[in-house]
Write a sequence for this structure.
């Protein structure tokens, strides 16, 4: 999947402050009205890009920070009002950990998709749906979509037809996507723009409910390169929001992360500066030759001056390491607490805790993942709405609201405990309900089919013969 990322942009000022760092969601109402009225896209698109710029800048900054690129980590651009001899700059990568833990927890296990058996054309739709999802490596697409949502606040997905006439999908990072709807809902898009490349020379794709337009930007001019029908009856570029505010997972704790970076950097610089502490001579005159000899031999002979007492000592500062440690621990705990991320270095994750107790430690992460799951499922439904318009042209009627997705958390399970629960529930609830509670069963319908096949594979005659053998063995023992 070719996603073009812009690097090396002017994202950070010389003093380390972020330019244009805002969480405001742009209001595109005026531009949507112009498009509804048939205004030339080439007049509207530059206005959309200009409004999207602050949001794009923030998401690009977050992505550079996720990669720990020098352009994205504020501590690497730190400056001081005075000159300092040692200025170490250390990044503590909490940002990527917050993103990766959420991504792995939510999308680490492939989601299971199924079509309602009660619907017409169940067999043909199920087969077509399975082919579509497998062809597009849905597990990988879901993983990357989740990652970009966690980084920047939203991601996007594009449906298109490849050169073989097959339905394809690709994920689009949020900084490349402008998603338009009157009510601000980025899932049910009316119009959408994808743009990438260098500022002032973007390649731009514009989508509506029928057509795709491709433009090449040259300064303030847009040159139309392509115009074609995209084969769907709805806009095929739509969003996957991380939350209603379109904020990334680490956004609320960026200040805490930066505080740790500054403190660790300063302490590290101070410790290293101790190696260059001044050696103070009292009552003696020492020239450079004697100092050089001291460095070589580790000892020095100091002649006294006027009978004064001679003393030599290091002039250094003392660090209050307890205060620093308490400060760092407080910042560390608050980062995990306010981002809803578990600290995997906690003793609770040492392997001695039960699965149920660990779930309490993961409550913040689970709350965040549950909220994101609802947004993700809503966007998936939009994907199937768009896809159904294309299949309808082939006389294949699919109800997009009867495609169900099941997401299972990527969490270490106590299989012995689960097996015990499965055994106790047998006969009390249906097999479908019982198997649906098992973390090791990804597709309940498929598992039920396998169970039926195993039952059919058992020959009743074999059972009778086995019974006779057992009875014969019993008689022999008697």
């Amino acid at each position: 999947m070719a996603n073009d990322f812009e690097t090396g942009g002017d994202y950070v000022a010389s003093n380390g402050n972020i330019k244009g760092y805002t969480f405001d969601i742009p209001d595109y109402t005026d531009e949507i009205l112009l498009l509804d009225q048939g205004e030339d896209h080439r007049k509207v698109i530059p206005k959309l890009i200009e409004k999207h710029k602050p949001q794009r800048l923030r998401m690009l900054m977050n992505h550079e920070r996720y990669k720990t690129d020098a352009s994205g980590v504020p501590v690497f651009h730190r400056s001081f009002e005075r000159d300092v001899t040692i200025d170490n700059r250390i990044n503590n990568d909490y940002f990527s950990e917050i993103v990766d833990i959420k991504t792995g927890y939510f999308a680490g296990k492939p989601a299971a998709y199924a079509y309602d058996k009660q619907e017409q054309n169940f067999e043909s739709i199920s087969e077509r749906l399975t082919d579509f999802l497998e062809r597009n490596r849905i597990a990988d697409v879901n993983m990357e979509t989740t990652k970009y949502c966690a980084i920047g606040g939203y991601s996007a997905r594009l449906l298109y037809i490849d050169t073989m006439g097959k339905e394809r999908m690709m994920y689009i990072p949020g900084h490349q996507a402008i998603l338009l709807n009157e009510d601000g809902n980025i899932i049910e898009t009316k119009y959408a723009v994808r743009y990438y490349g260098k500022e002032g020379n973007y390649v731009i794709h514009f989508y509506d409910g029928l057509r795709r337009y491709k433009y090449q930007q040259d300064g303030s001019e847009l040159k139309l390169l392509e115009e074609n029908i995209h084969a769907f009856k709805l806009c095929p570029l739509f969003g996957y929001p991380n939350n209603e505010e379109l904020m990334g997972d680490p956004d609320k704790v960026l200040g805490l992360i930066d505080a740790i970076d500054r403190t660790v950097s300063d302490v590290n610089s101070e410790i290293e500066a101790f190696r260059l502490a001044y050696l103070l001579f009292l009552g003696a005159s020492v020239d450079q030759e004697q100092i050089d000899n001291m460095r070589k031999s580790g000892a020095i002979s100091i002649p006294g001056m006027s009978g004064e007492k001679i003393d030599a000592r290091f002039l250094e500062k003392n660090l209050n390491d307890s205060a620093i440690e308490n400060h760092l621990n407080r910042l560390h705990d608050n980062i995990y607490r306010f981002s809803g991320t578990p600290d995997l270095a906690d003793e609770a994750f040492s392997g001695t805790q039960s699965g149920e107790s660990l779930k309490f430690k993961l409550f913040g992460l689970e709350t965040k993942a549950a909220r994101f799951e609802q947004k993700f499922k809503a966007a998936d439904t939009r994907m199937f709405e768009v896809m159904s318009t294309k299949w309808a042209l082939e006389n294949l009627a699919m109800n997009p609201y009867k495609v169900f997705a099941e997401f299972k958390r990527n969490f270490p399970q106590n299989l012995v405990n689960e097996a015990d629960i499965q055994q106790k529930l047998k006969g009390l609830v249906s097999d479908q309900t019982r198997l649906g509670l098992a973390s090791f069963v990804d597709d309940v319908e498929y598992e039920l089919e396998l169970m039926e096949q195993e039952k059919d594979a058992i020959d009743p005659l074999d059972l009778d013969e086995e019974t006779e053998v057992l009875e014969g063995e019993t008689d022999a023992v008697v």
About this structure: Confidence is low (pLDDT under 50) at residues 1-20. The longest strand covers residues 221-229. Residues 363-392 form the longest helix (30 residues). The radius of gyration is 32 Å.
